[in-house]
Amino acid sequence: MFTRNFRNICRRYSQSVTFRTAETSPVQQNDNQIGLFYTIEKDVCKKLYGHGGLPKSYMKQTKTFTETTLMIRQPALDIIDCIKASDLNKPAIRYVLYGETGTGKSLTLAHLIHFAHDAGFLIVHVPWVSEWLRRVPRHKEMSNSQTREGFVDLPLDAAAWLLHFKTQNQTLLKSGDLKISKDYVWSKREQTLAGAPLSELVEQGISRVKYACDVIDALVYEIKLLSNNKQCKTFVAIDGYNCFFYPMTRLNTPTKKKVKPEEVTLTTSFMELTKNDWTNGVIVLSVDQIAVAEDHQESYLPKYLLYKKGFEHLDPFVPVEVERYSEKEFLSCASYYRDRLWLRGPEELETELKLASACNPYKFMELCAPL
């Protein structure tokens, strides 16, 4: 009886502010829906974010809420509008998401990936660069590159990424319309012939892990070629991109020598993909202070986080700041939390939480957890 009454009270609070929209396709969303939550279908969520793309704390929350929702926010809509208005026959435009820690850069990127999926883009998504270069488990698989002297391969990470790429693009890859342009010889007995579907190249890297890094190199070359030939339009999304330019990784060679980011084959592949020397593509990157968490970063601005090398590599680019919640967004989020029974208590509590969290989305989520 008490639970039923409590649910009714929470519903009454949540009804005071509209916080949901029925428009589930980012292609159709507009400025009228800013601050509203939309629900992502389970099969789409598994396809796009099953191997990464949503922060772990947010994934935990979605399990508690028994649904995956994203708030429609201005930065994502701005980039979507720019993509719709831009001429894809011109060199790929690079957008850089930046902002304070916890403002929602990764979730904005997740929203844009959903847009790319619905708009028919081939998606090339790196969920978190730090997983490769900074977070080193006790026994990280690492080997010297067989094809490039002085470089280091991360074969298991590369194979896992190829599986992620295959899952996100299963519809486009199954069609068989995307073909590779030249022969690739992996060993005396193994080769991928010109004219074979792109999916065959991807499968080679998944099934033969030792060649995974070389397969990604070949895949980047083929994707750029296919895009230039207008056989597909490509959406590149990389979270924590500034990690590629931090002076050192946490990887060590067997001789205990520190490995630089540019000595990792995966770095060179995705640096190649983020050049603007190709067409029919869109590149969205995020720079984040916590990408290099153990080193205190004084500023969240791209010029600081990318260092000189990264800034020059991306110049020119379009910077897009992801800010803290506006008044409308905060009330919408509070109403959603009440609806999910994540936030309980009197209405005055919201004013206190607003001041305590300073409208930072992550801090607000954390403060609500024990309530």
UniProtKB/TrEMBL annotation:
InterPro entries from the UniProt entry: Ribosomal_mS29
GO cellular component, one term: mitochondrial small ribosomal subunit
Cellular localization per UniProt: Mitochondrion
One Pfam family hit: DAP3
Keyword field contains Transit peptide: yes
The keyword Cytoplasm is assigned to this record: no
GO molecular function: structural constituent of ribosome
Keywords assigned by UniProt, alphabetized: Mitochondrion, Ribonucleoprotein, Ribosomal protein, Transit peptide
Family: Belongs to the mitochondrion-specific ribosomal protein mS29 family.
Entry-linked PANTHER family: MITOCHONDRIAL 28S RIBOSOMAL PROTEIN S29 (PTHR12810), SMALL RIBOSOMAL SUBUNIT PROTEIN MS29 (PTHR12810:SF0)
Name this polypeptide is given: Small ribosomal subunit protein mS29
Species classification: Eukaryota, Metazoa, Ecdysozoa, Arthropoda, Hexapoda
